[in-house]
Task: inverse folding
């Protein structure tokens, strides 16, 4: 496991388009099929990373808290499944169903989407506004495996609350940190 921080996509970057397979329902989706007219959270996650495992239940809570307010959540796994078979779409579906993911869990087989978003680690978080412009990229909160801090989602919650209230989001954002994306 190589501990890797987010590369911090420049704020104001437009969300790159994609068409990916949802491991849960085995259908392909374009970005525009899944976005919200308020805000869209895009998360690069996987199944095997201990940093992702640490926040999985918190991701479900976060999404369940904000989906009723019109926020969309999209999870993407871009890992190389030949060398990391636990991240295979069949296993993605198992994890999503076991944890009750209320969001699509998409498989980026070519890794082109991760490259387009300049994703570097799992978990890696992005929030795009109603115009699909990046307004947040960084950590979910200060919790990490073994540091004793609770998973709260405080940084993403703060950004989403500001969007819902029509307030601006501070540019002072802390990179996420986790396992590096497993490139082919």
Result:
């Amino acid at each position: 496991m190589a501990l890797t921080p987010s590369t911090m996509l420049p704020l104001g970057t437009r969300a790159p388009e994609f068409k990916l397979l949802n491991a849960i329902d085995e259908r392909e989706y374009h970005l525009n099929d899944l976005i919200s007219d308020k805000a869209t959270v895009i998360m690069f996650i996987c199944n095997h990373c201990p940093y992702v495992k640490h926040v999985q239940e918190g991701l479900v809570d976060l999404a369940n808290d904000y989906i009723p307010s019109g926020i969309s959540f999209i999870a993407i796994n871009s890992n190389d499944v030949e060398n990391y078979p636990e991240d295979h779409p069949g296993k993605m579906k198992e994890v999503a169903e076991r944890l009750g993911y209320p969001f699509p869990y998409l498989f980026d087989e070519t890794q082109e989407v991760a490259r387009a978003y300049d994703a570097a680690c799992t978990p890696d978080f992005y929030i795009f506004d109603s115009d699909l412009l990046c307004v947040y990229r960084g950590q979910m909160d200060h919790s990490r495996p073994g540091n004793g801090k609770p998973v709260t989602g405080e940084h993403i919650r703060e950004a989403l609350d500001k969007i819902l209230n029509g307030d601006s989001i501070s540019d002072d954002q802390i990179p996420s940190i986790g396992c590096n994306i497993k490139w082919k």
